[in-house]
Design goal:
The complex is a heterodimer of chains A (146) and B (358). Chain A is α+β, with helices and mostly antiparallel strands and 146 residues long. Chain A contains 2 helices and 1 strand; from the N terminus they run ααβ. Chain B contains 6 helices and 16 strands. In chain B, the strands form 3 sheets. In chain B, strands 6, 7, 8, 9, 10, 11, 12, 13, 14, 15 and 16 form an 11-stranded mixed β-sheet that branches. Chain B has a 3-stranded antiparallel β-sheet with strand order 1-2-3. In chain B, strands 4-5 form a two-stranded antiparallel ribbon. The longest helix of chain B is centred in the C-terminal third of the chain and has 25 residues. The radius of gyration of chain B is 28 Å and the shape is flat. Classes of the chains: A alpha+beta (146), B alpha+beta (358). Chains A and B meet through helix 1, helix 2 and strand 1 of A and strand 9, strand 10, helix 4, helix 5 and strand 16 of B. Strand 1 of chain A pairs antiparallel with strand 10 of chain B.
């Protein structure tokens, strides 16, 4: 039972963790894509440069910017990943230890009487579902905010 | 002097006890085994043919205060003559001088006579083994509790319970929601449709037990449920021989409230399960009418185990029929901290490592 709970917690945490990490990587990818697009536009708008020169210059600029971006955000990202890992680990530990404590406390008041339901005695005489109203909520997509 | 009965072996005169293995009366001295009905009949005939009177002079000591004496029963052991002082609700016990099992029939006659009894199926040895199994595998149990664990007392007790039958007539109203989500290039949409759901019907509950003794902890009795009532038999005092037993001191009227609480909760759960296909369901109102039939009075078998550790008393209980074992144990706080730190460290390392792979 305890192992099932721990496994479930681990699975849930892993899904959450995967989601957070993937979101990080997707955001990075989006940032790079945006830089790349702005560079392309710059190629065509910059009338003072020859196309090929400008293209090489802009690619150099992009590579330098990208390298600087990765170096500055690299250590921050590692710290962020560690903190997230620690928080999830604390949750897992709390659930696991809570479950172990629960094994020591087995005297509990029974809330219901389902063991004493007479077999076949349940008869549903009325079952009616009525539609009341509808509400639509719309939220701007996050990609459009960039 | 209160009335009591001992069952003597017709063969050797030793005191008979109910044997949970054979479900018969057994003499621990000559190992003779007797059918319950045979012994009951034998003693009924003995009583009719040999009406002896026992008049005891009990005028001694100081006067009891008002109502004080009502709570105490004094019985005379028919084997050694020793006085057995017991709570007035005690229905079966053992003589403290000669250890002979005795049954106080006065606590079990007239309106106090139980309708049914579930005989013990498991013996004292099974209760000890169940305790050892229960202590195994508990990582946060202090090790010294296990090693220094000496059971102070193990006693088989017949606990009085009221059994309620109830017919339920219910009508429930729920507010339910269905959610649908989609998105286009600009927006994410969530459409929530609201419904009113009505459910009405009937359901019956039978033999819902409520502890009828103030001496027994209600939570412990509910924790060792359920009992298999199909193994219950008509009450006979012979089943109590060798065990402790109490008569009820909580009336059926007082107990019915607890049965109704549990029945209402179950009814709500059963009806809520019929509201399907929604994202969320909230109970808005419920009307539950209960029609309680006549309550039955029964005795249920419980093995009680007591132990003392660090000045605290720990009580365990085992269902004397099914073997279900419960009891609260102490927590080793330092072990809990060690486990918490260990799991946190390992999980952090694993998750942090995985973050580079994903």
């Amino acid at each position: 039972m305890i192992f099932k709970k721990i496994a479930a917690s681990l699975a849930a945490s892993l899904v959450l963790f995967t989601g957070v990490i993937c979101e990080d990587k997707i955001n990075s990818a989006v940032d790079i894509e945006c830089v790349s697009i702005s560079v392309t536009y710059a190629d065509y708008d910059d009338s003072d440069c020859a196309y090929s020169d400008c293209n090489i210059a802009c690619i150099d600029t992009y590579e330098m910017n990208n390298a600087a971006l990765q170096t500055s955000s690299g250590s921050g990202s590692v710290v962020k990943q560690f903190v997230i890992s620690l928080i999830i680990a604390l949750i897992i530990a709390a659930i696991a230890v809570g479950s172990m404590v629960g094994q020591l406390k087995t005297v509990r008041k029974k809330q219901e009487a389902s063991d004493y339901k007479k077999e076949g005695s349940f008869r549903l005489e009325e079952s009616r579902d009525t539609f009341l109203y509808k509400k639509v909520n719309k939220v701007p997509r996050s990609n459009n905010n960039k | 002097m209160a009335e009591m009965i001992e069952y003597n072996c017709p063969s050797c005169g030793g005191k008979l006890e109910f044997d949970s293995t054979s479900q018969k009366m057994k003499c621990p001295f000559c190992d003779s085994i007797f059918e319950i009905d045979t012994i009951q009949q034998y003693y009924a005939e003995m009583e009719n043919s040999d009406k002896s009177t026992m008049n005891w002079d009990t005028q001694a000591g100081t006067e009891w205060q008002d109502g004080e004496a009502d709570k105490i029963g004094v019985y005379s052991c028919q084997s050694c003559g020793g006085d057995i002082v017991a709570d007035s609700t005690t229905a079966a016990s053992k003589c403290p001088y000669c250890d002979n099992p005795v049954v106080m029939t006065g606590s079990l006659s007239g309106d106090l006579k139980p309708d049914f009894v579930i005989p013990f199926k498991l013996d004292k040895k099974a209760a000890k083994e169940a305790l050892n199994r229960y202590l195994d595998g508990k990582r946060l149990l202090p090790k010294v509790f296990r090693t220094e664990n000496h059971i102070d007392e193990i006693k088989g007790v017949y606990v009085p319970v009221w059994l309620f039958d109830a017919g339920v007539n219910a009508r429930m109203m729920y507010k339910a929601e269905k959610r649908r989500m989609w998105s286009d290039a600009s927006y994410s949409y969530t459409e929530t449709s609201y419904y009113s759901a009505v459910r009405a019907g009937k359901i019956d509950f039978e033999l819902v037990p409520v502890d009828g003794s103030t001496k027994m902890d209600d939570d412990i009795m509910e924790s060792i449920e359920p009992y298999r009532f199909n193994e219950a038999v008509d009450f006979q005092t012979a089943y109590l021989s060798g065990y402790m037993a109490d008569r009820y001191d909580v009336s059926a009227e007082e107990s019915i409230k607890r049965a109704n609480e549990r029945i209402k909760k179950s009814t709500e759960q059963i009806f809520a399960q019929t509201v399907k296909g929604y994202s969320s369901v909230v109970n808005e109102s419920s009307r539950i009418n209960l029609t309680n039939g006549k309550a039955k009075y029964a005795l249920y078998p419980v093995w009680m185990l007591n132990t003392t550790w660090n000045g605290n008393k720990y009580t365990f209980a085992m269902n004397g029929q099914t073997g279900k074992f419960v009891g609260n144990l102490p927590v080793d706080k330092s072990a809990a901290i060690r486990w918490f730190a260990g799991i946190t460290a390992v999980a952090t390392a694993v998750l942090f490592g995985l973050s580079f792979l994903l």
